[in-house]
Amino acid sequence: MALDTTPTSLRTVVVTGASTGIGAATARHLAAHGWCVFAGVRKQADGDQLKDGATGDLRPILLDVTQPGSVESAVQTVAEALGNARLAGLVNNAGIAKMGPLAIQPLADFEAHFAVNVFGLLRVTQAFVPLLGSDKFRTGPPGRIVNITSVGGRIAAPFLGAYTATKHANESMTDTLRRELLIFGIDAIAVGPGSVKTPIWDKAEAANDEQPYAKSDWAEPLKTFEQVMFDGGRTGLDPVEIGKVIQIALEDPSPRARYAPVPNKLTNFTIPTRLPKRWLDKIFASRFGLHKPD
Q: Which of 163, 213, 269, 288 is the catalytic position?
């Protein structure tokens, strides 16, 4: 993908998973608000579509977080554009989600979540840490890492065990990175959205069209749960609202360690995270028909 590699005086940020959804909205929003944005996409066509109608300095780059060579190439491209300057921000947004009961979900599906959402995030982070501030020969203030987690990083919903397991891991990794990278002045911040109008659930719905669990003991509860998630994906927050929160995380002189942009936050996040787990079990059971046998 051809790029203008002229060094920029703008604050520079890398956003992974920028083809659609939160990543695309964030890349466009930050570029429109004075950032030089390197937006990671997996296909040339996605990069072309991302730039269409965008304003500001938006530079799509091919970046597959599961492929070391792709990550290394992206780092080289960004490093050349920066010259001796430091990278101001890294937004780890790339992620996947597939539904299924953990007791019978194929292990390959579970592993795929970790390959992208956990190992991919760490691979990219490790690769960009020198540009963010650990390379002492670079100039400028140290950068920030913003990891996109989820309400699922704090609340483990049924049928999203693989996804929420990775998001719990992302929450822990963010805290650990923030404490370890303090020696370089690099901050690490979590942004955990609730329901967002994003294609991640359209992709999950398409993956479930074949009804792989239609004959399982969880068929009916899973059907109910799927509908709730798909509806949330169509009626949740606009992705640009998450982009605005990410901008705050990148720019605020004293940012929070975690942001939670969640619709109806009191009932969808605040109360559930404070309830005893057994109470939350009963709420999930009642809502999705997950009852003990007689």
A: 163
